[in-house]
Amino acid sequence: MRVLLDTNIILDFFLEREPFFNHASKLFDAIADRKIEGFITASSITDIFYICRRQTQNFEEARQILETTLALLSICPVDRDILETALKSSLADFEDAVQIACAEAQSLEVIITRNSQDFQTANIPVMSASQLREQLKD
Fold first, then answer.
1. Residue 30: CA count within 13 A, CB half-sphere
2. pLDDT by residue (tens digit) across 1-58?
3. Which residues of 51-82 are buried (b: 16+ CB within 10 A; e: fewer)?
4. Side-chain half-sphere of 88: how many Cα atoms within 13 Å?
């Protein structure tokens, strides 16, 4: 299964944000075990670095988080077509519109997020990390 991870899921894992860390950790275990293939948008990488650096107050730790992210996840490119598709979206949150456009362009099967209401316009299923975990048990 090929899934797009919303930025919040990645931050939950690396910053060990409770009460979300456990579900995000299980998702990353499944990615490391190659039970699922995880994707992230290229534009999310800069957001993750900025937030991790601000939270940890440590450039090297933020850099290590990015290196691990790049080692575990495939990158969805963000190009002009993606940006134009996102601009045409009815979503107020441009970042989410970019993520949807990327997931659809890459023919991904699911978007994993804590904020499913932010992805209402997606033409692919949207679920939480815990919902995906339950689905994988079947």
1. 23
2. 999 999 999 999 999 999 999 999 999 999 999 999 999 999 999 999 999 999 999 9
3. bbbeeeeeeeebeebbeebeebbebbebeeeb
4. 8
* pTM score of the predicted model: 0.91
Under 8 Å between Cβ of 127 and 25: no
Domain that holds residue 20: 2-137
| Residue 103 · residue 6 · CB < 8 Å | no
**Phi/psi-derived region of residue 62, left when phi > 0, alpha when psi is between -120 and 50, beta in every other case:** alpha
Count structural domains, the chain: 1
CATH number of the domain where residue 89 is located? 3.40.50.1010
Q: Is 90 left (phi over 0), alpha (psi -120 to 50) or beta?
A: alpha
